[in-house]
Amino acid sequence: MANEAPKVARLAAETVSTAQALPEAAATTAAPRAAAFANAASTQTVAGMQTAMEQASKAAQEFAEFSRGNAETLAQVAQTWMTGTQDISRQAFSFAQALTEHALEGARALSGVKSLKEAADIQTTYARGAVDKVMSETAKLQEASFRLAEQVSGPVSQRVSLAMERMGKPLAA
User: Please, are residues 73 and 155 in contact by the beta-carbon 8 Å criterion?
Assistant: First the structure.
């Protein structure tokens, strides 16, 4: 056992000297590793920020382009609407004028009647003519109104569809 005490003392001394050298060795290898890790993290962060900025810029450009398209579509729709309503108004005015002339013809015809039967026949004829004109012209005005509604709603529907498509895609993809 006497022989083991120096051996234990020697092992303890080696353990202590190894433990004392460990922080120094760790410091010499940890610093370069930490610096490399920090450098890599910094590079990745900068690259990620650049990518995010590029995506944000692209998304802003796409939004501006889409908004410009919306404004152009609205201008086109407004022009179509104004032109169409002017045409329909002209048709309605022409129709009102034709009805007035028809009523005046009926009044003139009634002014020269000689019997009640003749007056009733004239009144029936002109009333039937007026109803026929109203039905015919109303159908024409209705058709023109539907055409105008289609012309106006078409471009707006296309823009809405395009917006829905873009909403389904990821930003700046």
Answer: yes
* 55 three-state secondary structure: helix
Counting beta carbons within 10 angstroms of the beta carbon of residue 150, is it exposed (0 to 12), middle (13 to 18) or buried (19 or more)? exposed
Q: What gap in Å lies between CA 14 and CA 140, rounded to an integer?
A: 110
37-86 pLDDT, tens digit each: 777 777 888 888 888 888 888 888 988 998 999 999 999 999 999 999 99
Comparing CA positions, the residue from 88, 80, 86 lying closest to residue 137 is: 88
pLDDT (0 to 100) of residue 27: 57
User: Quick one: 59 exposed, middle or buried, by C-beta within 10 A (0-12, 13-18, 19+)?
Assistant: middle
**Confidence check: pLDDT of 20 > 70:** no
Asked if 55 and 173 count as a contact pair (C-beta separation under 8 A), the reply is: no
C-alpha to C-alpha distance for 95 and 103, rounded to whole angstroms: 12
Q: How far, in Å, CA of 46 to CA of 138, rounded?
A: 69
